[in-house]
Every structure is written in C-alpha cells, then in structure tokens.
Amino acid sequence: RRFVALDTTKHTMLASIARAVRPATFHGRSTFVDRSRLATRPVTHRASVRRMAAAASSNPIAVFDTSEGTFEAELFMDRMPITASNFVDLANTGFYDGLHFHRVIDNFMLQFGCPHSKDAKSPRSGTGGPKGGTSYDCNGETVKRDGGGNIPDELIDQTSNEPGTLSMANTGQPNSGGSQFFINTVHNDFLDWFGPGPSKHPVFGKVTSGMDVVNKIGVCKTDRNDCPVTPVKMNKITIK
Fold first, then answer.
1. Can you tell me the distance from the alpha carbon of 197 to that of 137, in angstroms, rounded to the nearest whole number?
2. Of 45, 86, 129, 207, which residue is the least packed, with the fewest Cβ within 10 Å?
3. Choosing from 86, 111, 180, 188, which is the catalytic residue?
4. pLDDT at 104 over 50
C-alpha cells in the first residue's frame, strides 16, 4: 500500500508523507529492553525513555551530502532518543547512502529514506523501510524494530513541524515509521502529533546550516508523482 499526492490540499499532503508499511513477517513481541510491546503501543513519558535522554550528553549532527550541495541538521537525541538513535543507526550503517529524494512538493516538504529509491525512478519508492526484526542501540539500551522494520511512535516532545525540521513519515497508522522522513520547508503545524488533526508526525531534528540547499531541492521540477525530474541523490549521511 502506498499513498501519493497529486495536488496540494491538506488531505493529500498528509497522504504524501505517508509510506506503506511492509507486513510483519512474524507476530511475536517487538521488544524494548524486553519489556514493551512497541508494535502496538506508542512511547510516551516512560522512565526508560527519560533515562536514555539523560544519557545523551550532546546532540549529534547529521551531515547530508547531496548532489545539490550539503546541509547539516541537529538530531534531538536529548528529546527523542528512540527516533534519533534509529536515524543514527541507519546513517552509520550506510542505509541512506545512494538513495534519492523520492517526493518533493514545493511550499510543503521533501521526503526521503525509502530503500527502493536507490533507483530514482522506481515505482516502489515510498513503500520501503529497514529490514524487519533488526535492532539498534539507544544510549546503552536496545530497541528492536518490528517485523515490518518499524519503530514505536515517540510521542513526547512537542516541537512543531516548522521550516527546516526533520519529521517521521508513516502510513497514518500507529507505530508505522521506519527509515522514511521528511524535511519541512514551511510551517506544517497540521502535521503535529499533538494537534487537533489526525496526523501524528513527531519531529526529531532540525536543519542548522545549508537551508538554502534544502530550499533549492524544494523547488526542483517534479513529475506528476512529485518525484524530481532530475534525480536528487544522497551521496552520504555522516554523523558527527
């Protein structure tokens, strides 16, 4: 299942940043320190999350080397440890290297992170995520992705989807985010998980330099599926 946007109404914008979750290959427990059923319950203000956030002495910076230039973003490890650590793990293992921005909508956002987008014109772009059942370190504790490669919604920090923020893409269903995220180019407060609408897209970082590069990508020419006509490649993401 994949969601696409062919116009710029709020409803289709919501659909455009959603990705199709791959079905789980098993029905066992998705574990977080072997205590939580993360596949069915979002993370809120649990003591374990607060401990992990406290363990983050300083927030990491992600350096995005793209075919259109370089930009950097702070990852909110202190506020969103599970989500930020998921991103760091994927970046450090080279998951994002060589992928393309598969959906760009002017005056809205840029979407990235689907493994199928290694082929810039793949019709499957927007439907993929990390391998199911994989795990990663989160400040000394282990988080395991579910059978579809998804992580739990981390509904804790109330940072709005302001320009330059990095936010998790999902299918619109709980706990369906994995590797895909989007960068807001305007203030999309209707996407805030804590707002009155149905959207649940938590912010986990913000561009700190190179916003001109982000905005340049944001106005590139796209086809009817919002895919850049001239592919925009992520050469490498480095964490520092």
1. 32
2. 45
3. 111
4. yes
